[in-house]
Each structure stands twice: as structure tokens, then as C-alpha cells.
Amino acid sequence: MILVPVTYKGGIYRHSDVVDLIEDIGGYVVQKHVIAQEVVLQCFVPQADVEFLRSAVKPVSGEVTESPLVGTEIAVVTMSLEIHHLPHMSCDVAEYVRRSGAKSNMVSLARGVGKRISQLNDEERDVINEHDIAIYLFGNFEKCLAVKIQKLRRGITVPIVMCGGPDEDVLRLITDPPVDAYVGNCGRFMHRTKESEDLTKLDEIVATVTTVLDKKREAIAKDPLSVSPARLMDLIREKVPAIHEVTSPTPLTVQMQGLRVKLPYDTYAETIRRIEIEDGVTVGDVADVNPSRMRDYIMVKIRPFSETNVVV
């Protein structure tokens, strides 16, 4: 069964019936947002049942749309927290990928400024590698981009989408950046992205990120995961009551190959390892449960079938 990411938007009236329907057809609700009288559900549903779900929610005035970034966690990497680096492109990109279903985290580098001194430290590298993909936001000068990306790419194992001011053809005259994709004409500027051309550029970034992640999904499909991250999320919700006491946004953040559990590692890691999935197979049998470099969270990385010879 192939699960596809979708978003449901509708009124709060009878939205629990929609949640039950999603679960009945074999889907999973990843995130739920209640905004005034509107409910937004980000979920995975079987591909064969998407049209059925669309027709089923019409009586309650609901809408189901494709959201390719649901179930992904994205690192938006900016060069510093200074006023000339952080606003406004960085904030707008982080918010725009959230609208497409992703969970985004801003990663501001301690030594990202300057061609000569720019570098990643170990903690920054490890935090970025805990995500599904990284969006690097650079400035407007092609020589600066060409020098910096060579340094800031070292040790990064997740796909990188690089954004900057120069056009791609202009940048490639200087260097062939070692990244998975590049989006030009979106460097540093001091205004909010409200105009139509700015929103079009944000749409291009989302489309580029989606393309890169689709390639990653294809690679995962060739050696499927031992268990679905969404199913693992439901099991932890059911068998670890403490997760319902967490006040952080998205206490369970689903990723493409695992999930981030926002509970203390020392207290709950062994509990999560011992959760039985099916027929005596536990989480520890099919996944690595490690401490996260982000606060005291837990990272659960699901191993592929080639390593476990198990699919549950």
C-alpha cells in the first residue's frame, strides 16, 4: 500500500468524523491544527483512496489537497542571526515550506559570515544531518557563494538546496556547486515577500525541494523501510502517555526515514526501544534510537529491509 501526503482543510464541525475516516482507510494524521473555526489535518492516506476521501468530505465542506512536503523536516540554514542575514528571505522560506506541510527549523550558523572564516562546527553539522533536507540561504555575490558552499557542504549527508542572488548560469561560470539543486535570483533583500514575483520565487523553492525529496523517496522505495514512520508515530502516541504532556509544537515530528520524539533521551529511550510493533518485533529491532543534538530529544532512525529482513 502506497501512502501519499495530503492536507485536509475544513470547519471544526464533524472534523472528528474525518479523522475516523482517514484512520479507517488505513491513513495516519501527522499533525492537527485548530485555528478559530477551521481545522487543518496533515496526513498520509492510501493513494487509491485519495479521490474517495475528496468526495467523502464534501458534505462537511472540506477540501483535500496534495501536500508533497507533509512528513518531512527541513533545516533552513542562514549565515547568521544578524539583521542583514536573517530577515526577510529566511523567515519567509521557513514559513512557506510549513504551508506546504513540512516542519521547518531555522539553523543559524555561528561562523557563517565571511569568505575567509566561514565554517560549520560539529553541532551545526549534526543538527543539519538530523533533517530530511537542508535549504542554504546565501547572499547576492557569486564569488562569495562559490567559496562558502565548498566549506559549508563538508560533512553534510542530507540533500542540499542552495538559494542565492546570482542566476544559476552566472554562478556555474565560476563553480559547479556541490549541491542537489540551486535556485537563483533570491538572495538577500530587505522587504517582505508579498509581491507576486516574490511569491512565485517561493513557489519555485518549494517545487525544487519537492523534486529533490521525490528523488530521495525513490531511493528509499528501492530498499523500503522496515516500518512506516507514520505507523511508528501512532504506536508511540498509544504506548508512551508522556508524549501527550509535551507542550512543544509537534511532539512527534515525522521524517522520511524516522521521527523526532520530543522527550528526554535518558528517561524514555529504552521505553521506546521496547515498544512492540507486531508479532514480537520491537522498535529496537528495526530502528536506531539515539540522542538528538537538538536539546534533549530522541532521534528514531528506521533501518531499511536490507539490514533487518523485516517489514511490519
Q: What would you note in describing this structure?
A:
The protein has helices at residues 15-24, 50-56, 89-99, 122-129, 142-152, 168-174, 196-222, 229-239, 265-273, 283-286, 305-308, and strands spanning 3-11, 28-35, 38-46, 63-66, 73-78, 103-108, 133-137, 160-163, 181-183, 252-254, 258-261, 276-278, 281-282, 287-291, 298-302. It has a five-stranded parallel beta sheet with strand order 6-5-7-8-9, with helices on both faces. The chain has a four-stranded antiparallel beta sheet with strand order 2-3-1-4. It has three domains: 3-66, Alpha-Beta Plaits (2-Layer Sandwich), CATH 3.30.70.260; 73-220, Rossmann fold (3-Layer(aba) Sandwich), CATH 3.40.50.280; 229-308. The protein has eleven helices and 15 strands. With 312 residues, it is an alpha/beta fold. It is globular and about 55 Å long.
CATH topology label of the largest domain: Rossmann fold
Largest sheet: 5 strands, parallel
Number of domains: 3
Could you name the ranges where pLDDT drops below 50 across 5 or more consecutive residues? none
CATH homologous superfamily designation of the largest domain:
Cobalamin-binding domain
CATH architectural arrangement of the largest domain: 3-Layer(aba) Sandwich
**Distance between the first and last residues' Cα:** 12 Å
Major beta sheet, strand line-up = 6-5-7-8-9
Q: What would the average pLDDT be, to the nearest integer?
A: 91
Shape: globular
Please write the CATH class name of the largest domain: Alpha Beta
Strand content: 15-25%
